[in-house]
Amino acid sequence: MTPQSPVVAEPSVWRSRSFQLLWAARTVSLTGSAVTLVVLPILVFQRTGSPLIANLTTVRTAYLVMAAVALVAASGAWLSPLRRSSATLTPGDTPV
C-alpha cells in the first residue's frame, strides 16, 4: 500500500472580499437594468399617452447602449496597433 497524498481543498471564491463586492455590484447593475426596461416604457406612456413613443423610446435606449459598447470595442481595436505613448493623452497634451 502506498500512502496517498492528502487532498488540499482550495479556498472558496465566496470568501474573497473582492469577489463578494464584484458579485454584489453586478447584481445591483443587472437589477437596475431590468427595472429600467420595465419602468421606462410605463413612464413614457404615462407622460405622453402614446404607445408608439413609449416603444420607440425603449428601442432607442437599447440601441444607444449597443452603440456605446460597439464604439468602445472599435476604438480599442483601432488603438491597439498604435504605440502606447502616442495613444496616451496627458494633461498638457492638446488633442488634434
Structure summary:
This protein is an all-alpha fold and 96 residues long.
Descriptive keywords:
mainly alpha, 3 helices, 96 residues
Any chance you could write out the topology, listing elements then pairs?
Blueprint: H1 17-48, H2 51-79, H3 84-87
Helix pairs in contact: 1-2
Describe this structure in words.
By secondary structure, the chain is mainly α. It has a domain at 20-80. The chain contains 3 helices and no strands. α1 (17-48) runs antiparallel to α2 (51-79).
Task: Quickly give the structural class.
Answer: mainly alpha
Radius of gyration: 24 Å
Query: How would the global form be characterised?
Result: flat
Distance between the ends: 75 Å
> Helical percent range?
55-70%
Provide the β-strand percentage band: under 5%
**Sheet with the most strands, sense and barrel status:** none
Oligomeric description of these chains: single chain
pLDDT below 50 for ≥5 consecutive residues: which ranges?
none
Q: How large is the count of helical segments?
A: 3
Mean pLDDT reading:
80
